[in-house]
Amino acid sequence: MTRRDVHDEGGPPAEDDAGLGAELVAVVAGARRRALRDGDRQIDTAHLLHSLLESDPEVRAAVGTAPQLARLLGYLVQRSIGYGLRWQSGVENSGAGPGAGAPVPLPRRTRRGGEPGGAGDWSPAAAAAMEDARRRARQRGEPLARGRDLLASLVVDPTSRAVEVLERAGVPAAGLRARIESGAGEFTGTGAAERTDGGAAR
Q1: How far apart are CA 190 and CA 59, in angstroms?
Q2: What is the pTM of this model?
Q3: pLDDT of 116-171, one tens digit each?
Q4: Do 166 and 173 meet the contact criterion of CB atoms below 8 Å apart?
């Protein structure tokens, strides 16, 4: 999928996706659609994780085995009718440091003309994860962040909603982070993506 395809499908304009590869532009657009559909106030790290798993085979492989991935997707799908209901009345703060707590506005042109139903802001934790993904790409000498960068960033904050869901599904965030950062794309369960493509939630 190209950036033009993403923009044609209602994703953020090119001016607002600096530092993101086309795949991550699509991930952000998917996370925003999910937040709007569910009536959530913000795009949080669990929205990003869900969209990332649906979009990126490398990320699905990194999670682990097919049963682990199926459990994780199952928890994410249940968000709007189960445990995630308690999140709707609160803000996902970032545990990354001082100054966290206030929602971070999305760039003006990504607000889609003031659509009702919320999701006009990033949660502080999601904003921090997106910025960290860009930083990881720059450290590698690459201009655009990839799905693997965002996945690594999502598991940095042990208080994030993405980490909470991972732990609920039996995917220890510390172990996942170690697999990602050990490098070379050698993940546990490398066949998980192919075995579970048909089961990804839509």
Answers
A1: 10
A2: 0.73
A3: 344 458 899 999 999 999 999 999 999 999 999 999 999 999 999 999 999 989 99
A4: yes
Each residue's pLDDT tens digit, 52-81: 999 999 999 998 889 999 999 988 888 766
Structure tokens, 3: 């950036």
| Rounded Cα gap, residues 2 and 39, in angstroms | 28
Q: For residues 161 and 92, is the Cβ–Cβ distance under 8 A?
A: yes
In the chain, the largest separation of any two C-alpha atoms, in whole Å, equals 43
Torsion angle, alpha carbons of 12, 123, 148, 146, to 10? 20
Q: Which residues contact 117 (CB under 8 A, 6 or more apart)?
A: 36, 37, 39
Helix (H/G/I), strand (E/B), else coil: 165: helix
> Band of the pLDDT at 41, cuts 50, 70, 90?
confident
CB atoms within 10 A of CB 189: 19
The beta strands (E) that lie in 115-176 are given as 121-122
Q: Which residues contact 195 (CB under 8 A, 6 or more apart)?
A: 66
Residue 43, SS3 per DSSP = strand
Task: Tell me if 160 sits within 8 A of 130, measured CB to CB.
Answer: no
